[in-house]
Amino acid sequence: MNKTIYQFNVNNLYGEEVSLSKYKGKVLLIVNTASECGLTPQFKALQQVYDEYNHKGFTVLGFPSNNFLKQEPLNSQEIGAFCQKNYGVSFPMFEKINVKGDNTHELYQFLSNRKLNGKVKMKPKWNFHKYIIDKTGHVRDFYYPFTKPNSKKITNKIQELLAET
Q1: CA angle, corner 126, sides to 39 and 83, nearest 5?
Q2: Euclidean distance between CA atoms 86 and 163, whole angstroms
Q3: What pTM does this model have?
Q4: Using CA of residue 138, residue 156, residue 122, residue 67, what is the dihedral sign?
Q5: Residues near 54 by Cβ (< 8 Å), separated by ≥ 6?
């Protein structure tokens, strides 16, 4: 069984299909986002971490979700504009998906199920739940929503994974 994220295709905010194999060789932080959440200011820290490590082979992938108290009411175009205007987001953002429940997107089924990903068993408990992926597309760890993207816990792991050959 393929235990990497590279088997999945997702749609960007413009409705264009993107294969996650496009990110082979990069360390990834995959985050479910929302524009009306108390944690929404984490977009700023996500952008800072992206800016600091992007040139070294790291990127953030944002997946808007309306699964937690309907805190993402915006459509794709509005989400893109909101993120750019308020937080200067330049990392890839994707179409709104379900990250929990009966209609969970297949990417998030994979990210949260140890039987599928081989490592992590943790469904998002709230917006801004984070999964870190190594350069070979394997899920390596997760971080709870309240863990700030620019915390030492996350940046140390990014540096560790970037240093792996």
Answers
A1: 40
A2: 32
A3: 0.97
A4: negative
A5: 91
- Residue among 47, 11, 122, 82 nearest 132 (CA): 122
- Residue 15 CA to residue 99 CA, distance in Å, equals 18
Strand, helix or coil for residue 111: helix
What is the identity of the amino acid at 79?
I
Helix (H) or strand (E) holding 51: helix 42-53
Rg (CA), the chain: 14
Taking only the tens place, the pLDDT of each residue in 113-145 is 999 999 999 999 999 999 999 999 999 999 999
Q: What's domain 5-163's superfamily in CATH? A: Glutaredoxin (3.40.30.10)
11 beta partners = 17
**Domain spans in the chain, listed from the N-terminal domain onward:** 5-163
- Catalogue the active-site residues: 37
